[in-house]
Amino acid sequence: MNTAIINSDSYEKHFTGDGHPEQPKRVIAIKDKLKKRNDLIWEKPKKVPEKILEMTHSKDYINYLKNSFPQKGLKFLDGDTVVSPSSKKAIFEAAGSTIRAVDGIENNQFKNAFCLARPPGHHAEKNKAMGFCCISNAGVAMNYLINKYNYKKIACVDFDVHWGNGNYDVMRDNENSLYISTHQYPFYPGGGTDKDKGDFNNSLNIPLPAGTNSEQYFNAFDRVLERLIQYKPEFLIFSAGFDAHKDDPLAQFQLSSKDFYEITKRTLFATKDFTQGKVISILEGGYDLNALAESANEHVNALVEFN
Prior knowledge:
By secondary structure, the chain is α/β, with parallel strands linked by helices. The protein is 39% helix and 15% strand. It has a single domain, classed as Histone deacetylase domain (Arginase, Chain A), CATH 3.40.800.20.
């Protein structure tokens, strides 16, 4: 079975204003790269069940979000998070990409999936938008897997260069999940130290200094693999941010595009006996367009090889 790419034109219509780093060109750059391949299945997102949204975020926040989209122009949900009239469809379809990905895997339509979606989600907390993010897409996937398919052990590996405070907030009190993050520290959004263990000792955070290179990163990443093997996840979610690349303008890690192939391959290999290869990946950060497209393609290479 092939790897699926879950994508919608709505992601290109979520306008954030001139000069905003989280821009439509991000998904366009990746899509242009992946469309040159002939080994992928392209699918559209599905609607997120309302109860899954309300398991992931507070009902008050979801209602607030649904009523936050302007008739024209831009609206700031926080200092970084901007929405425009067409953003509503993109935001809810970004979350819905994970629903399509999970259903496709569970129904044996494809082996694994990459959700080529925006806006990203890993900074969106239960009660607020933050850091370009409105809905924790990984949190939606986790709750759907538990609620619809009765999974008991789901691991989320977040290799975005920023700590996924939203993913952590959504997953920390869920004993059926394990959240793991490698990230630059001290750095936006704050937190993400080894003291952030979750309510059930269900989180591993590995803060790393600015300037971390490939060798240093992979030495630290061995701790991720060890924890995954210990945990034995039944399903794997990647929060796939590519802003740890050396060319990224928003952070100071020194990874290469090929390193994202290695991150993916090593994680898949470590978990394959437990997940049987069931994995979805969700686009998070990455703001240099060339580096983003290259790195995402390397990530997809590893997903395809693992089929």
